Amino acid sequence: MGLRFKYNIVLFLTCLLGTAAATGISYFIVQKSAIEEIHRSINLIRANAIAVRSYTLNSITPLLSSDNDILFLPETVTAYAAHSVFSTFKKTFPQFNYKEAALNPTNPADLPDELETALIEKLREDQSLGQTSTIVENDKGRFLTVAFPLTIKQPGCLRCHSTPDAAPPAMVDLYGPDNGFGWKLGETIGAQIISAPMAIADRRAQETGIILIAGFSIVFLLVFIMTNLMLGRIVLRPVRRMSDVAEKVSMGDFSVPEYRKAGKDEISSLSVSFNRVRRSLERAMKMIDD
Ligand code: HEC
């Protein structure tokens, strides 16, 4: 196995390991920061929903709630307003999702699925949790889903969510007496569940990986070409010539011209020493012949 081959194998393995490690680490870091960005957009969606809720509660409900006893207007309900505003938002950003899920919801559309139930249960078990999140994979791709607890903090909520008798009759007519009642003050009855696509995070991590691999490959190619050129010129070619001369001299052929490598490096001083050895040998041989 030649010197060049050994050198190139070591160089190749080092570059391969270096590229793999750098790509792996950067993939991890980029994905982490992209996930943080997704978290930020989820927080924005939530802040917007809270703003819609508070606008409905403070500005719309007082205007229309007096009519609720005769004709119940779901538009006066904060959850309804948040959900309706989001459905308009979703037309522009279909990949995002917002749901106010409750274990015992007034509107059956707010029933949680299996995963949402698990998130709500987790928030109910640990009341100090401000949020809980998970990554969901389905046929549409990977999604980051974050659940924020919906806890009954205002006694006013219980007017419509404690017993059907306490609720506006028109509301009970519309939604029925079986769902969305029995909620307690301080109870976490459900969660605001928001999910956002991970595609941006995945794509960005992939792009960074490809850029890194391409960058490392160019650097590797340059290092490969330059060091091979240097290796040939500085080490291999002079060593090969010295070994040719040494071969002939060892067979008693002193007619080959001396080889002296120019410069002051180790190979040059080796060529000088070798010439000296060769001359001494030639002299000794002559003395024996005489
Ligand atoms: C005027 C009656 C009324 C009041 C007061 C009220 N809600 Fe509701 N709530 C409803 C109705 C009706 C729905 C179903 C809306 C729909 O069709 O989406 C609902 C839905 C919800 C939902 C979505 C889950 C579900 O049950 O479908 C949550 C969460 C919720 N309300 C929480 C609250 C909280 C918290 C308060 C107090 C700040 C409150 N509600 C006050 C009537 C009310």
Automatic annotation (TrEMBL):
List residues of the HAMP domain.
233-286
Q: Which residues cross the membrane?
A: 210-231
Q: Does the keyword Transmembrane apply?
A: yes
Keyword Cell wall biogenesis/degradation in record = no
Matching InterPro entries, A to Z?
A: HAMP_dom, Tll0287-like_dom
Origin superkingdom: Bacteria
Family matches, as Gene3D superfamilies: 6.10.340.10
Q: Which UniProt keywords apply?
A: Membrane, Transmembrane, Transmembrane helix
Q: What is this protein called?
A: DUF3365 domain-containing protein
Give the matching PROSITE patterns: HAMP
Per its UniProt record, what SUPFAM superfamilies does this chain match?
HAMP domain-like
